[in-house]
Amino acid sequence: MSQPVKSAAADTASGRRAAAQRHRVRQDLASAAMRLFATQGYEATTVDEIAASAGVARRTFFRHFRSKEEAIFPDHDDTLVRVQAVLDSADPHEHPLDTVCRGITEVLRMYAAVPEVSVERYRLTREVPTLREREIASVARYERLFTRYLLGHFDENAHHDGDDDPLLAEVAASAVVAAHNHVLRRWLRADGKGDVEAQLDHAFDVIKSTFGTGIGAGRIPSRAGNGGTPAVSRQGDVVVAVARTDASPAQILRSIEEALRKA
To answer: Where is this region: Disordered (predicted)?
Structure first.
């Protein structure tokens, strides 16, 4: 019975070593690409030169990156996986906007892990339109992920005329990404100095105060009805509404108005 356990442990250790090796090669290629782009220019640099500078073969380069512009963004794919894990493992009672803010903090930490590299990459993306477009495309992946997550916390049956939740979900996701980008750019322009996470937390407070009360808490069964929708009942001439504390005033008023129309 002990042999399978040993085998599993060996497989786990082997997997960790492979992941570490992959990470090391990607970082070496990224460093080589940034160095060559900075010294001889993006257009003048070839994939062969990047691979040679990193001490690997051309085919190894293409096992990790599809093009030379991808090479200076080695961590986005792994970070996207970590962000997805944050969303997937969130407590069902956590406000979805809080979860999204925790998710994009993982992106910020990717940049903050090696400030000097992030500052140099920022300089390159400002000078080379192709690199800037690649960065924009990478950021858009996070925004789509957050939008899907927020939209997933509304009852599909509630998507009707006059319901602003889907609109708020998309706008809030865009706002979170925009706040991250604003704070990150300011930090990079300051040469990566300062407490960037504290700056991002402040930006989140602004967003939450603006959107937090307007976004439902998801499909959590409660006394307030399915998915957090306020439960309204009529008792004679009195209308009683029971709602979650994070239900928006608009949600509560709509439910009361519907109950009065049905009376």
So the answer is: 1-24
